[in-house]
Design brief:
heterodimer; A: alpha+beta; Aldehyde Oxidoreductase, domain 3; three-stranded antiparallel sheet; elongated; B: mainly beta; RNA Polymerase Alpha Subunit, Chain A, domain 2; six-stranded mixed beta barrel; 4 helices
Chain lengths: 138, 207
């Protein structure tokens, strides 16, 4: 089952605009290595889940994978061959809005080599350009 | 051994001027502490970046001002690539200060051969240490960590003269059985296609 909020205040959202770079959630906080996005965009719940599955097999039984983003925004769409009007479409999927610099996933307890392989596999699933980020020591 | 940084006194303030300063290969910095006036400085980007990469904390300032300083805080750009600003605090050689230090796991836990994984729960601890003896990181030996056991801050190897500020009983690492897919997936109610809308039920009941 794809990620989505349990309770929401409104079913439908306006599209909005992605301005600026991430000033929060742009550091490795839980693991040792992170996958940082270099572009802004929407990452659907299905994509987040696909990334998790792709990465999980490389860290299973060794390290731990952290998902740092959550799809809070519902994206609506109108069905095909629908006439104009009749209001906003129904929610189609849920997406996470990410700004450039956001850390999408983190892994801990694995070597740098393993983290690189894991994130290279994961980055292929992402609709945005990504790079590996290391934890900065205190 | 403290690294030497060639600093210059800075009279350029404001974001436009500071941006130009950065474009010219300098980093804006501030020096304060010991009850003296704070001084605005500029540091060469290359020298400072090299010092940071080597894990240096104590620096010797020469040029615009002469002092021994500790790198207290470094501000990075949103991608964590370029240094935007540095905070330096004056220290003397015989002084002890509280500083956060990273923890590095050393060795191989016997618990991993029994199917466990080592999880690092805290990535840093606060230590009171003489400024001349601040290490880059602290090592935590996990050679005795069996499955189901944990290591606390008391088991860290501290440099001479250092004192732990973090509680000694704080768990730093543990060896546990890894989560399996079945455990991770919570049993979910079947067919939840949409989340609950806050306030909707009440409205419908009222209508």
């Amino acid at each position: 089952m794809a990620l989505m909020p349990k309770r929401v205040k409104h079913r439908k959202f306006q599209r909005g605009r992605i301005k600026g770079k991430a000033t929060r959630g742009n550091r490795v906080s839980f693991g040792d290595f992170g996958l940082q996005t270099l572009e802004g965009g929407w990452i659907s719940a299905q994509t987040i889940e696909a990334g998790r599955i792709a990465a999980q097999q490389y860290v299973r039984g060794e390290g731990r994978l952290y998902i740092r983003i959550f799809p809070h925004k519902s994206v609506s769409s109108t069905p095909l061959e629908t006439r104009m009007g009749k209001g906003k479409g129904e929610p189609d999927y849920w997406a996470a809005v990410v700004k450039p610099g956001t850390v999408l996933y983190e892994v801990g307890g694995v070597s740098e080599e393993a983290a690189r392989i894991c994130f290279a596999r994961l980055a292929h699933k992402m609709p945005v350009r990504c790079r590996l980020l290391k934890r900065r020591s205190a | 051994m403290a690294e030497v940084l060639h600093v210059a006194l800075r009279e350029l303030f404001g974001k436009r001027r500071v941006r130009r300063l950065r474009a010219g290969g300098q980093i804006p910095a501030v020096l304060y502490g010991h009850g003296k006036e704070s001084v605005s400085l500029s540091l060469p980007t290359t020298e400072f970046s090299m010092a940071i990469r080597r894990g240096t904390r104590l620096v010797e300032l020469t040029g615009g001002t002469t002092d021994t300083a500790l790198i207290r805080e470094v501000q990075w750009d949103p991608f964590g690539v370029e240094v935007l600003h540095a905070d330096l605090v004056r220290v003397s050689a015989d002084e002890s200060i509280e500083t956060p230090l990273s923890i590095e796991l050393r060795g191989r836990a016997p618990g991993t051969t029994q199917g466990g994984v080592v999880e690092l729960l805290a990535h840093e601890v606060v230590v009171e240490c003489p400024v001349t003896a601040i290490p880059e990181k602290l090592e935590l030996n996990i050679n005795t960590l069996e499955l189901g056991q944990s290591l606390t801050a008391a088991e860290l190897v501290l440099p001479p003269g250092a004192k732990l500020v973090t509680a000694e009983d704080q768990v730093l690492a543990q060896c546990i059985v890894p989560f399996t897919e079945e455990e991770e997936d919570e049993p979910e109610a079947a067919d939840i296609s949409e989340p609950e809308v806050i306030g909707r039920k009440e409205e419908e009941e009222e209508a």
